[in-house]
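Data availability (excerpt). The following record was deposited with the supplementary files.
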Amino acid sequence: NVGQLSLDHAARLAQVFPHRQLHVEPVLDLHGDVWAAVVFVEPRAAPSRVRRSATAPELPKSFDRISGSDPGLRSVLHHAARVAETSLPVLVCSETGTGKELLARAVHEASRCWAGPMVSLNCGAVQPELMASELFGYAPGSFTGADPKGREGKLAAADGGTLFLDELAEMPSALQVLL
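Predicted structure:
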């Protein structure tokens, strides 16, 4: 019984993670048999948080500059606020001009790395042959026209904070793999 399997595992894991919220999802094979279970271990909501309603928790202050009452937008903002509480990488997909960087900045400011730098790089604005040195930096005298002192890359500049890569699809595919 899938439900019983999930409940049994959740009960055991709840003892191991007493201060966490657990959610168990069974993974079924093509025949509908349980193949595995995915356990989501999340922090419990802090009791000091004030809720507007039972369905919509209050957003962190960093989201205040994003306005709109569209239910789809509000849902995205609430999901982004939940992700900001984790250390997971975030992929923001949307059309040009819709505010991806504004959302990334709000997530950064609501995250554990809020005190670190927020570094942005528009991959579409950098020549493909210069992208690696832009990301990883370079040593003094590495190539003609290089800064004689060398330069720190965006990855190092964002250490302890957030690196926002806009127009990521414009980055050469070999460099995407390297990342």
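Summary of structural features: The longest strand covers residues 34-43.
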